[in-house]
Amino acid sequence: MISASRGDFIGRQHAVALLTIAILCVAVLMLPWIWLAVGSLAMVCCILLVHVLASALRGDCDPALLIWILVFPLGYHFLSFPRERPLFTLDRGMIALLLFCLVLAPQRIWPRINPTLRLSAVTWCCFLLAGALSLAGVQSSQGGVRTLVEAFFFPAVLGWYVVQNFRVRENLLKIHLLVCLLAIYLAAIGAAEMWRGEDLLPLPDAGLYYAGSAGLQLLRVNGPFLSNTSLALIGLITFFLLGFLKRATSAKTVSWGRGLHALGATSALLVALMPLFRSVVLTLLTVFLLESLQTRGSVRRVMLLTAVVCLVGVFLWGSAALPDIYDERVSSLDNLYARIAQQQQSFELFWSHPLKGVGLNNFHDAAEKQTKYSTEFHGIEALDYPHSNLSAVLAETGILGFVPYLLAQILLVAAFWRIRQRGSGDSRLVWRYFRWIFLGYWLSGLNLTSGYYSDLNLWYVFSVALLYKYGVSESIAS
């Protein structure tokens, strides 16, 4: 009797399984493919969400961070609610989850962090405090508060989690794969926007900028981001980050992974160049020249010098084939004169409020209200926007904010130099690519207010923190 009952039960299980398979087959044949695609995507998202939440309850935010690496550019368009003035964004949700995990997670490596980086974090907190003090008495402080929180505080939390808890070495191959995919779809979006001459993923308050005259204009694409500055510098940082990841995973990379890396690195380079920023081209020329002088292999040196020749060749070709665009973006001095006038205006605005500045993100309003700060150079007027990270912080937060802001950058470099002094292969690799990422961020940051974009700062701090964690976890891995 028992064996008969067990056989009936197993038979019913088989019948239910066969019935389920039959229903699924009918659904595949009868339902529209778009419904099946949406349903499959929803199912995958639900499984990933359950996995992320279950890991977060254990204090492990690594799965969520890996997903964020791949999708964070698209989050600004698809995961912001409501559409106008969103209350929830992917970045806000991610930072909240990171803070939650930091509370629950055990202390893994924080005691091993050198005092220089800790001091850099302390000075950054002083800058955040000075930024908050600068908003006291400012009539319209909403934009300043948002900049302070999203552009300066959120990246600090992300960097803190990566250094303290993110398992970089264990996830290195996954990170390499995800960053390659990120670069590829960013290049595809940018190329499509440049071809069509329109913003395919428009965001509220996003502006379109063109290069050239009415006869021939090229869209300076912004991809899925609010600004083309973010797209260009995220592409540049991604290009350098992929160089680091390739060398850090070279012993484990399979043949198809090398092909994917080549496609990802090429895509990242195209993403950096598409918005047509001169500072990006100058950064690449500087890095390629320095690398060619420092590298020992003749083949690699020839490749780097070839890259320099190609960039110069593109400039020469542009002067002949696209004279209007070349004149506007390269040979014209009007832009240079405007930036010189802008630096004069920034210093005058700082001198009127030297202690705590005119208020974070309040430069334009302060310059418009006080017309005595309108300046010009060789007949070209100032732009009424700071166009430099350093001059923006100096004018908007005064000495109280500028000193810790600058000191935090110096201490960050010093912390990586201490890693370099270990003399191992990994430490030299970390120092080498940190220099290029830091240079890529700051060469443009000296003539653009790029440090006020939260998307760019998140990616920059994530990349730098990833390199640092890889360097300090070397002894643990060995």
Fold and architecture overview:
The protein is mainly alpha-helical. Among the domains are: about 35-80 and about 90-105, no CATH class; about 170-275, no CATH class. About 70% of the residues lie in helices and about 0% in strands. The chain is built from 18 helices and four strands. It has helices at about 1-30, 35-55, 60-80, 90-105, 115-135, 140-165, 170-195, 230-250, 255-275, 280-295, 300-320, 325-330, 335-350, 365-370, 390-420, 425-445, 455-470, 475; strands at about 210, 215-220, 375, 380. The strands form two sheets. The chain has a two-stranded antiparallel sheet with strand order 1-2. Helix 11 (about 300-320) crosses helix 12. It is globular, with a radius of gyration of 25 Å. The N and C termini lie far apart (about 60 Å). The mean pLDDT is about 80.
Quaternary structure classification: single chain
- Supply Rg: 25 Å
Mean pLDDT: 81
**Secondary structure: helix percent:** over 70%
The shape is: globular
Terminal CA distance reads 61 Å
Please work out how many helical segments DSSP would assign: 18
Tell me the major beta sheet.
Answer: 2 strands, antiparallel
Q: What class would the helix/strand composition place it in?
A: mainly alpha
Q: In terms of per-residue confidence, which ranges show pLDDT below 50 for 5 or more consecutive residues?
A: none
For the secondary structure, the number of strands is 4
Secondary-structure element pattern, one letter each: HHHHHHHEEHHHHHHHEEHHHH
Strand order of the largest sheet: 1-2
Query: Strand-residue fraction?
Result: under 5%
